[in-house]
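Annotated sample (chain length 139).
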Amino acid sequence: MKTIAVTAMMLWLGGCLPAPAAALNHASDLYQSGRYDEAAREYQRVIDMRPSWAPPYLGLGNARLALNERAEAVDAYKRAVALSPDWVDALTSLGRALLEMDRASEAVPVLTRAVQLDPSSGSATSLLRQAEARATPKG
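Output written by the structure step:
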C-alpha cells in the first residue's frame, strides 16, 4: 500500500512540472511577443530539462541574436547543429549569425550544407551568396 501511495505522489508531482514541450511553446510565445530576455531564460530552462533536444537551442540562439548577443547566439546555434546536423533551420540561423559577426568564411560551409540539404531554401541560398561574396578576397 505504501508503494502505491509513493507512486501516486510521484505521478502527481510529475504532473505539476511543466513538460519540456509546453515550456518550449511558452518560450516561443515570449519570443514572438518581443520579450527576448524572458524567452532566453525560458529556453534555457527547457535546455536544463532536456539538454539533448535541439529546438530550445535554436530558440535560445534566436533570442540571443534579438538581444544583440551574437557570440552567445552562435554558441546556441552550434549546439543545435551538433544535436541535429541536418536541420536546415539551425544551419541557416548559424550561417546568418556568423555573417552578422563578419565571419563569412565560417558561414560558407555551414550555408553550403543547408543548401545541399534543401536546395529550395531561398533564405539559405541568399545567405550563401552573401557569404561567398564577403569571403572572396577583393582584388
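Annotation: Residues 2-16 form the longest helix (15 residues).
Annotation: The chain has two domains: 20-83, 85-139.
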